[in-house]
Amino acid sequence: MTEIPATPTPLPFDPATTALVVIDMQRDFLLPGGFGESLGNDVTLLRAVIEPLTELLACARAAGITVIHTREGHLPDLSDCPPAKLRRGNPSQRIGDPGRFGRILIRGEYGHDIVDELAPIAGETVIDKPGKGAFYATELADVLQQNSIATLLVAGVTTEVCVHTTVREANDRGYECVVVADCVGSYFPEFQRVGLAMIAAQGAIFGWVADSADVITALTTTAPVTA
Asked: pTM surpassing 0.85?
């Protein structure tokens, strides 16, 4: 057992019961010309997450902790996409419409998949989710239970939407969550700041916030986990 230096307090954790959850680092959200940019967003704010997250992911793999990736998207017939969600976006660039990287947020399309720098490797779980939260209508709860996970290191995009929703869902289910500040991103700098503050407020009401350098140090000073 070791500790992660975090806000509001250091958090003890056991790598054997810890998972890194990488949320929605998909081409449709992060690449120029993708769905995120079509909504008028500056994707460079999300792409800044790739470099520190690449280092954190490599460290997590070396430490032998469970790694889980998520992808937000829908079935080709959109039967799992509520009408209220389908109406989101510009009239010519909505979920299911043709985009630069294939049909927008449709499973199996190039844009739906994870950016090359963070591509899953053999043995890592990929959760396809139709909603903002990673628990809704997915097998995530079963995967965590099967791996005896108690602590989640949370990374990905966007901080105020899919990250926040997943952390809140996890908190309600009894998981300790550490949101890695420089490994989550938002299209809106103010949302990033406030989103992180909300998580750690009132004595870690939803979870803890830590920098990747501190998480990496905690992982590298712990003996690797063997199968």
From this structure: yes
